[in-house]
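Notebook p. 47: complex prediction with copper (II) ion.
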Amino acid sequence: MMRRSLLLLGLVLLALRVQAEPVKEIVIEPVGDELKFKVTEFTVAPGETVRLIFKNTAKVMPHNVVVLNTDSPSVVNRVGTAAISAQDYVPNDPAILAYTKVAQPGETVEVTFKAPEKPGRYRYVCTFPGHYTLMQGVMVVSGKATS
Ligand SMILES: [Cu+2]
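Predicted complex, structure tokens below:
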């Protein structure tokens, strides 16, 4: 009987621990129908679980959010140009850390991913054709690791 209660207590504690794992929620919208993200910079902790939600509040423009593992302009350019002919505008590129699918106007999409362990600046772009040169932001990884 005692052993059974201890087992149950253990399970409850385990469940609480799983629930307590922090998830950083970031909500991004475009600026009207401009090729701009409203949030152009956000900060997360190294290794943190990030839930990135993109609410496409635009009236006519489809958009997505593609997070890269670098801030390098040449990589941004490489991914942005390859996206034009890629399926769903997301090329198969090793620099892509996470991405949402394309959100049509009025649609909300999201992606959950683990932030890099390495502090630094990580560029995110919209890879819908013609958007990436203007539609960009930076995810800053900084501070103490969460795990
Ligand atoms: Cu866009």
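Notes: The CA atoms of residues 125 and 136 lie 4 Å apart. The chain is about 20% helix and 30% strand.
Next step: compare against the earlier run before touching the bench.
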